[in-house]
Design goal:
Length: about 350
């Protein structure tokens, strides 16, 4: 493993490695070797190509100069293994032309890196698979994360109780874990009873998320804020996906865990155990995403918005085993686009 890590660190700069680590931990890219038809004897069989990687990824870059969008919810859904196909792009990487392929970037790309991070991650994942390393363990070693932190049940329990006192919403707590898992939070210090932090700017205005990732990991530019240590409140009404601010929850959790030298991962495990049974977080996140899509896609038709929202709410409640009768829905959809009318 050390040999591969040394090779990759010589080949790619620190910022590129930090960006691909964010993408890896947020589950933003899926790759596989291209399937090719090969003749073996009298048969034609499908075999994976040894040289062509096909990959699909969340669109972190966009060629629309008027692009305005908040991508935190979409990244969070991918982190939960919910793939949104309408916001993904596909590409190929030819290992036979590795240097040229890695250096090649889209015409509209203005990121100040030597290599395309999406292609780099696809290549690194292939290297890890070829060596049969565990992906999670490999990326932890690549990022020089500390070895496993010793379990401290007493301190972990205390921190879990402090976090639950502030928020008992599973999806908001999972959002905080997402930000910590992806190294999207930096604590810059604490003074006068406040924790100063910086986080990635997911709210895009005429710029792509890949640019904001570069700004955060290379230049230290992001959204700055502070959390009052003595406060008993977390900001709410954060976004369509989250009620309580996952950023403030992540900052407070990281601050407490770092100060007591305990694992935030163990703390979150204890938090979710203490919460007991709750609604599936991925399903709730998917519900929130499509409620947003209804609001933005049918903003000129309030009646249609309400009808679709009522349908989705019924499906959500029925799926959660509420005492509701079964109702069958039939939809008739009209489109002027003949290509998508089937």
């Amino acid at each position: 493993m050390e040999e591969l890590i040394t090779y990759l660190r010589k080949m790619f700069d620190d910022t590129t490695i930090k960006i691909i680590n964010f993408m890896e931990n947020a589950n933003l890219l899926v790759s596989e070797m291209k399937m090719e038809q090969v003749k073996e004897g009298d048969k034609i069989i499908n075999k994976p190509s040894p040289n062509i990687i096909e990959f699909s990824y969340l669109k972190l870059c966009d060629d629309d100069p008027e692009f305005k969008h908040n991508m935190m919810g979409e990244a969070f859904l991918h982190y939960l293994d919910y793939i949104l196909r309408d916001v993904r792009a596909n590409w190929r990487l030819d290992i036979n032309r590795l240097k040229q392929e890695l250096n090649g970037k889209c015409g509209y790309c203005n990121i100040k890196l030597n290599n395309c991070p999406m292609k780099v991650l696809a290549y690194v994942k292939k290297c890890v698979a070829d060596e049969r390393f565990n992906e999670q363990a490999f990326f932890e070693a690549l990022m020089n994360y500390p070895h496993k932190i010793a379990v401290n049940d007493i301190e972990e329990e205390n921190i879990a109780e402090k976090i639950l006192f502030l928020c008992k919403s599973p999806i908001d707590l999972k959002g905080a874990q997402f930000l910590l898992d992806t190294d999207a939070i930096k604590i810059e210090g604490d003074d006068f009873g406040k924790i100063r932090y910086k986080t990635i700017d997911f709210d895009l205005k005429n710029v792509s998320l890949i640019n904001n990732l570069y700004d955060f990991y290379e230049l230290g530019i992001g959204i700055s804020g502070d959390v009052d240590i003595a406060s008993t409140k977390i900001s709410n009404n954060y976004s369509y996906m989250f009620n309580y601010s996952p950023v403030e929850l992540a900052v407070y959790t990281k601050y407490l865990c770092d100060s007591k030298k305990v694992s935030y991962y163990n703390v979150f495990n204890k938090i979710f155990i203490k919460l007991g049974r709750f609604e599936s977080i991925p399903k709730l996140a998917y519900f929130n995403e499509y409620m947003k899509k209804i609001d933005t896609s049918f903003e000129n038709s309030i009646a249609l918005q309400k009808e679709l929202r009522d349908v989705l709410t019924y499906i959500r409640n029925y799926d959660n085993k509420s005492q509701l009768p079964y109702v069958k829905f039939d939809f008739l959809i009209y489109t002027r686009d003949s290509r998508n009318s089937r």
